[in-house]
Structure formats: structure tokens, C-alpha cells
beta-N-acetylhexosaminidase
Amino acid sequence: TALCLPGIPAAAAQTAAPGPERQLSDVIPAPAQIAPNSKADFTLGPHTTIHTQLGSAEAESVGTYLAEVLRPATGFELPVDSSARSKGPGISLLLGKGGADVGEQGYQLDVAKSGITVRAETPEGLFAGVQTLRQLLPAQVEADQTFSRTWTVPGGRIVDEPRFEYRGAMLDLARHFHEPDEIKSYIDEIAQFKINHLHLHLSDDQGWRIEIESWPELTTVGGGPGTGVDGEGPGFLTKAEYSDLVAYAESRFITIVPEIDMPGHTNAAQSTYAELNCDGVAVPPRTDIEVGYSSLCIDSEVTYRFAEDVIREVAELTPGPYLHIGGDEAHATSEEDYRTFMDRVLPLVEKYGKRAFGWNEVAQADLPTSVVPQYWSTETENADVAEAVAKGNQVIMSPANKTYLDMKYDESTPLGLQWAGLIEVRDAYDWDPGNHLQGVGEESVFGVEAPLWSETLRTLDDIEFMAFPRLPAIAEIGWSPQEARDWESFSQRLAEQGPRWEERGVNFYRSPQINWP
Ligand code: TNX
């Protein structure tokens, strides 16, 4: 830098106006519209105030969130003021139509010399704008110690809204339980990339992870000591812990989507309760990673009492609109039984006020159009899903060979599986959900999701290593217009995330495809 050049006195170098370190386009996911104005940079100072929409507690809480993000590194006080007697230079978070039409999730960000304004129709939109603003500050803003330096935001205007309304990530709590604090930490990370749903895979062959009062041993036994892959992932969420997570996620504008996987992937339940087996004998618990061997007993009324109890309790606990009932890899259930099961169970989800999600196999059943198949197969053709879409169903795109964060990056990746292939960052990035699957066009795509299965994972470090940097790729695919994104630009913007992860102590894979600084 200038300070290191021989012959230039430090004082002279410092008087040269320090331009912003970042450019207005240095954001993931790439904003829809960007108009830089190099004469309009804004520099935060010790007197910067965060002004929020008069009378809106929600806008004020987004302001408080922003202040909490910026205070440690800047050392500035950054008071949050919703009194509308706004004085002094500041960052304004305003609600209501005003500028461009940005829909329910979008925002407009104006950076001028005199201040910054984020405008949105909803608090959710403000929060998205705040994430953009955050990335426009130098990486050191993510540190938890104070730096004395200039904090300049590049001038101009961003008008931004998402391509798809649903952008999800998934954690598998069944194969290895992840503690609430680890889940919260992941929530904080994915929120920065404008992910707005977190799908929790709460039950599987190796463990049951959500308290159900009417079947109490599901957790004490099914989620108890010795459960999880290799017996190393025990634990479960009490109802109170689940509700606390839901509230935490909500504070980051993330909706929790709970999944109870049925009629296969049910060994934990069937080893806990003998009556869930056709022969009335409990199966032994399993801690290996085989799939497709378990099935609830389709002809037994106990099965439907169980399914209804679980769906009712989980639905009651979940303020979000969706409930995922799994339905994948039911190889031990005949096709006819599978349809019988879904015909009875899908309406239960609706009965308790939720919209059903299911893995793409649900499309083999007679689907109401409200049901959303989540496409995970690696094929680019699927007759059942195409037929459902022709009837009006929407689809979440999670093709395993693109979006599965548990696939290895390359042969040498110490964690992960590779049944769907190796997925380097570029593989995760270079595809278009609007034309990936035959018969499923843009308008039938509800959104995209990046699942992270945890057969090989233990710690938060493991989660982060597999998610970053591929999760931002999926987030950009879900948010940015197809024409606003390309690999060259993404890989450069992604490189700039490296120092930010370092400041936050987030583990990530230093992909050789990226020119990390
Ligand atoms: C397939 S994808 C599964 C999961 C495994 C995953 C491992 C899907 C709906 N089912 O049971 O954990 O592969 O990658």
C-alpha cells in the first residue's frame, strides 16, 4: 500500500482521501440493480446515528441488530433512534413504499455523502438491505476487537429483490445432533447471504430429535445415549429449546421448516415403540448409514395415530407455514402402500394448518397442488414431478449433485460423502434452477435449498467447512437474477468473503478455484 512505498511520507499518504475498500457490487448474493456513484461515498463516524422508522418496533429492532454488528469493530456508539427528530449524519432504515418497487423481500439502498438510507416495504426487506450494507464495509468490520481506521461505504444506489421467494438451508439433526447454540451460529452465518428458511431434519433411522409429549420415549430413547451415526450423535430439542430456536431464527428473518421423515427413515421411532412395527416387536436401534430399510406399518391404525400426534404437536410448535413430511427413499414400503400412506397423512398436515413439503418421491402420490416436492435427485428428468408441476404444484430445487453440502469438494476432502459426485464451488454455482429439470420452468420453482446431511459431521467447525463457500453459491442462485450473475464475478466476490470469515472465526474450505486474498 501507499504507506510502504519508499519516498512517500506517511503524512502525505494519509491526506490522500482513502477511497472505499469495497465497491458497490462487492456483495453476495449479487444485487439486481447497481448504480455506483464515486462522488457519494459515506464514512461512518463516532457521531453516526441509526435512525429507524417512526413508530415501528420491528424497524427499530433491525436497527439494533445493525448497531450490534457494527459496534465492536468500529468502537462507535451508534445509537438507535426511532424518534424521527433525526439529527446528524446517519443510517436511516425506513419502511413503506417510496422508491422503486422492491416487493415484500426487497430493499433500496442509497449511499450519499450525507448519509445512508435503506428503504423497504417490510422489516424483512430492511434486514436484507442491512446485510448488503454490512458487506459494503471493510472486512475488519466483522472483527470483535476495535480498529481505529476509516469505515467508508461506496456511494450509489442498489435496488434489489429476490428471484425466488424461498431460499433455504437444511441441517440434519438426526444423524448427529447439533446443539441449539451451533444452530444459532449457523443461522447468523446464512442470514448474511439472505437465506430465509432453515429446514431441520428432526428424525431419521439413527435418532429422533424433537420432544413429542404424547410419545415421550421418542426423545429419551430414540434421541438418547448411543443414538446417531456410530452412536456418537445423541441429543434432542425440548419443546422450549425448539421454540427458542424458532424465535432466534425469526429475529434473523429466517423461518424454521421442521421435517418428520415418514414412512421410511423411521428406525429410531420403531426401535423405541414396538407398536409401530407390523409384528409388534421393536426393531434394534441402528447407527450405521444405510438407507431405505425401515417402514412404518401401513395397515395399522397405530401408525396414523402416531403420525397425527406428531404432526399436531410439531405444527402447534411451529409458527411458520410449512411442515416437511419427508417421504424419501421408502424402499421398504411398496408403491401401493406409499400412496395409501400419503393419501392419509398429507391431509393431516393441512388439518393442522400447514402446507406440506416432501422429498420428490411424494410426487408418486396423488398430490394436492399445495404440496411442494423438494427435488433432490441427480437426474434432469422426473416424470412424477413434471406431472405434478403440470397440475400446478411448485417445486423446491435441491439437486444432490449441485446443492448437497455434504458431498465432498474433491477426492481429498476429509469429511462428506460422494454418492452424488464431487461438488467444487463452481459445480455448486453453475446451474440454473429455472431450466434444470425438464418440465419445470421458472414460474414453477418455489425456491432453492442447500441440505447438509450429517453422517460424517460432528462439530460446528465441520458444518462450516462443508457449507462455506458453497452455501453462498446456492444463496446467490436463489436470490440474484440469472443475468446478474456469472462465475467470474462470483469467484471474485467470494474471495472477499474469506477475510470476513476469518474475522468471525468461521471455518471454510479454501477452494483452489478461488483466488483468496
Ligand atoms: C440421501 S436425500 C438422503 C439422506 C442421506 C443423504 C446423504 C434424501 C432425501 N435422502 O437420507 O442423508 O442422501 O447424502
User: Anything to note?
Assistant: The CA atoms of residues 468 and 508 lie 5 Å apart. Residues 57-74 form the longest helix (18 residues). Residues 291, 328-329, 359, 376, 404, 406, 417, 453, 455 surround TNX (CB under 6 Å).
